[in-house]
Amino acid sequence: MDFYVGDGLSAPLIMVVFGKLFQHCPEEINSVFGYRTRRSMASQEAWNFAHHACGKLWFRWGLVLLPVTVGLMLLVWGRDTGTVGLFGAWWMVVQLAVL
Prior knowledge:
Blueprint: H1 10-23, H2 44-75, H3 81-98
């Protein structure tokens, strides 16, 4: 079988990992790593707040999406590749919308 439950876990895992990283933001505003928007880079206070708020949100939603993803993907376990692929693609769109 070409399907693995882990295939759908990438978005929630990214959210958990980067959520934790963003809660401890880079000390200096930079244009390489971080939650980079015009508003978050306007001041150090905004930079710190944006990272902490985004980090908490991503971390929590990632933890919610992990078991939901495993449960939903187990519902299509053993089905034909087309069904699994279509369901997996649909669920990935939902995950990316949350992300």
